[in-house]
Amino acid sequence: MTEIRMRVNGAVESLDVQPWVSLLDALRDRLGVTGPKKGCDQGACGACTVLADGVRINACLALAVQYDGREITTVEGLASGEELHPLQAAFIRHDGLQCGYCTPGQLCSAVAMLAEHRAGMPSAVTERSGELTEAEIRERMSGNLCRCGAYNGIVDAIRDVAAQEAR
């Protein structure tokens, strides 16, 4: 067993884990943080997406011991008290979810994706700096799958928040 400490959604957590335990399993099974979901357990679906020091990662592919001393944010940590994160509110407004299984990962990914875009990081479809087109959003969110097909609402929600930030 290895003792690790990490800040999860603002709270410092200490736990003993075996070296092969994934960050996803440590969050869900040891800390009771159930927002990140186990979808494929292979890093292909994005249901387990969390933010590690603000960068989106697939928690099913990360070993918990790799994140000793790091800041982990899950969907539970996006809201500020009772006030929803702007993306959470936009997902509701634009019907960016159906069954909701993928939604926590979609939200964490969208938060990071907007930060990446603001920082000027290009994607495979980037044509002009500053413009967040539908194609750009779809490319940047392509690591997060939605079995229900709520993609149009997800894209609309992200565009809405991006437009609000641009004002």
From TrEMBL:
<protein>
    <submittedName>
        <fullName>2Fe-2S iron-sulfur cluster binding domain-containing protein</fullName>
    </submittedName>
</protein>
<dbReference type="GO" id="GO:0046872">
    <property type="term" value="F:metal ion binding"/>
</dbReference>
<comment type="pathway">
    <text>Alkaloid degradation; nicotine degradation.</text>
</comment>
<dbReference type="Pfam" id="PF00111">
    <property type="entry name" value="Fer2"/>
</dbReference>
<keyword id="KW-0408">Iron</keyword>
<dbReference type="InterPro" id="IPR002888">
    <property type="entry name" value="2Fe-2S-bd"/>
</dbReference>
<keyword id="KW-0479">Metal-binding</keyword>
<keyword id="KW-0411">Iron-sulfur</keyword>
<dbReference type="InterPro" id="IPR012675">
    <property type="entry name" value="Beta-grasp_dom_sf"/>
</dbReference>
<keyword id="KW-0001">2Fe-2S</keyword>
<dbReference type="InterPro" id="IPR006058">
    <property type="entry name" value="2Fe2S_fd_BS"/>
</dbReference>
<dbReference type="GO" id="GO:0016903">
    <property type="term" value="F:oxidoreductase activity, acting on the aldehyde or oxo group of donors"/>
</dbReference>
<keyword id="KW-0560">Oxidoreductase</keyword>
<dbReference type="InterPro" id="IPR036010">
    <property type="entry name" value="2Fe-2S_ferredoxin-like_sf"/>
</dbReference>
<dbReference type="InterPro" id="IPR052914">
    <property type="entry name" value="Aldehyde_Oxdr_Iron-Sulfur"/>
</dbReference>
<feature type="domain" description="2Fe-2S ferredoxin-type">
    <location>
        <begin position="2"/>
        <end position="78"/>
    </location>
</feature>
<dbReference type="Pfam" id="PF01799">
    <property type="entry name" value="Fer2_2"/>
</dbReference>
<dbReference type="InterPro" id="IPR001041">
    <property type="entry name" value="2Fe-2S_ferredoxin-type"/>
</dbReference>
<dbReference type="InterPro" id="IPR036884">
    <property type="entry name" value="2Fe-2S-bd_dom_sf"/>
</dbReference>
<dbReference type="GO" id="GO:0051537">
    <property type="term" value="F:2 iron, 2 sulfur cluster binding"/>
</dbReference>
